[in-house]
Design goal:
2 domains; globular; 17 helices; mainly alpha; 311 residues; Serine Threonine Protein Phosphatase 5, Tetratricopeptide repeat
Amino acid sequence: MTTNNLQQQQQQRFPSHKEQFISNHFTSLMLTPERIKTLAGPGSNERNGPLLTLLGCHKNLHPAYTINLGGTALHVAASAGKLKVVEELVKLMSEKELEIKDDRGNTALSSAATVGITKMAECLLSKNQNLVTFLNENKYFPLVEACICNYKDMALYLYSVTPVEFLCQDNGHHGSSFLQCAIIAQMLDIAFDFLHRFPYMTTTMDGVLRSNPLLCLSTMPALFHSGNRLALWQQWIYSCIPIEPIATGVLSKLRGFAINLLTFLGIKKIYDLKKMHNYSDKILECMCEHISKLDYRNSSRQIYMEHSNVL
C-alpha cells in the first residue's frame, strides 16, 4: 500500500477539521427562519453557494440526509425560495427521496407551494408526479397550501396537475377542502371551474375545515354585490364596465388592452370587484342548481351524517 493511498484512507476515516465542522453544523441545523437565512443567505442561489458547497465539501453528506425536524437540504432550499439550489439538489436525489417528509409531514413540494415559485414545483414534479397527493400532519396537500398562502399562479399550476381521482376520492373530502380554500382565497375562477365539473362538492363535508363549500360561501357576503357599498360614482362606473363571459379562457389582445386602459384610468379595482361578484354569482347559481336536484330528506340526512362524522 502506497503512502498516498494510506493518506487517502486516513482522510476518509478521519475527516478534516473543516469537514467535521460542516458535518456538525449540518447535523445540528434546525429548520427555523434564522437557520434558513444562514444556510440560504446571499449567494446561495448560485452553483457555488453555501448549501451546494456544503454538500460538495462533505462527500458523505447526501442531499437526502435528514436533519433536525426531519427535513432535508431540499426542504431548506425550497422553504428559502432558492430555485437554482432546488434544481441542483433534485438532480442528485432519487424519485423516492423527493417524498421524504419533515416532522410536520411536509414534502419539499409542500414547502415550494408555500413560497409560490411555480418553476420550483415544476422541477420537483418533473421527477415525481405523485408529490401532489401527499398530505402533511394538517391533512393539507400542496394545492391547498398554495390557496392558503394566496399564491394564484402556483394554485393554477397545481390545480392543472393534481389528479381528479385524488380530489374526488374518499367521498370528495380532498376536493371539498380545496374548493373551500379556493373560495376563501377568492380564487373564484378556479373554484367555479372545479365546482362546475363536480357540482356535488357543494354539500360535501371535509375532515379539515369541518364544513362544506355551501356553508363556506354563506359566510362571505363580501364576495357578492349586495355585500359591498360603493360610492355613487363608483356604482356608475361599476354598472358601465363590461365583463366577459366566464366561459372564455384565453385573454385576447383587445381585452388585455382594455384591462391596461382600466388600470391607467385607476378603475381596475372596480373591474376586479365586478369580476369577483360575477364569479360568486355563478358559483352560487351552480350550487343552487345542484341542491334543487337533491331529495330534501335524503340530502339533509346525508349532510347531518357527514357533519356528525367530521365532528
